[in-house]
């Protein structure tokens, strides 16, 4: 699904440090956005699902996520932290022409885009991200974002291969994400052409959580997507498939990092 990052004008992008200890996840759903995204891991370990592939994240890894690629942060340990940088399409197109790097402005370019940065390059990039995050002047921040985009694109000592999901697990994810999250395990397995036992084992191994937990995460996304000021959260939670408000509350704390009411008080959206 396409989401809006709601970047304020005249910002050409943004740089935000994501820490697992402060917020378990940015967004509990497969999503994409118009902005080009770059993730630089500074500590801990995590895993991103992008299209049909897993990308393992560890310190020094830089991951590019393009506008046509649905992605989702699925796993992270308590020490996980990464810089998340996004750039508006206009800036990306302009720099892609100057750098003669058409791939940079593509919606969904082929190949792998997870790179291992040399330690010195990773430190320099992280320091620039920190300076941009603290820069109050919009013009200087935009100039820094342009420099960061050009510099980060050139970095990377090697391309890191991603692990492909089994087709049946990918199909189960798509079915659950797109409205079939109430299918019993046996019916879900039949739709994917495998046995329930195989699907249950393979899903947990490759996705990092049981199907039941992934269902709860998907239902939570449905509630958060559908909420509007004045809506009854209990009604939305029950309609999304939660058996009780307590289950919805527990899912929100696990995946978003706060209670539903705190999420509403913070603005009712996951924002950069």
DSSP helix count? 10
Q: Main sheet: which strands, in order across?
A: 1-7-2-5-8-9
**Structural class estimated from helices and strands:** alpha+beta
Radius of gyration: 19 Å
Biggest pleated sheet:
6 strands, antiparallel
Instruction: Please indicate the percent range of residues in DSSP E strands (runs of 2 or more).
Output: 15-25%
Question: In total, how many domains does the architecture comprise?
Answer: 2
Average pLDDT metric: 87
Give the termini separation: 17 Å
Named CATH architecture of the largest domain: Sandwich
Catalogue the unreliable spans.
none
According to DSSP, the number of beta strands is 10
The general outline is globular
* The level-1 CATH class of the largest domain: Mainly Beta
Query: What's the helical proportion of residues?
Result: 40-55%
Order of helices and strands: EEEEEEEHEHHEEHHHHHHH
According to CATH, the fold-level topology of the largest domain is Jelly Rolls
Going by CATH, the homologous superfamily of the largest domain would be Regulatory protein AraC
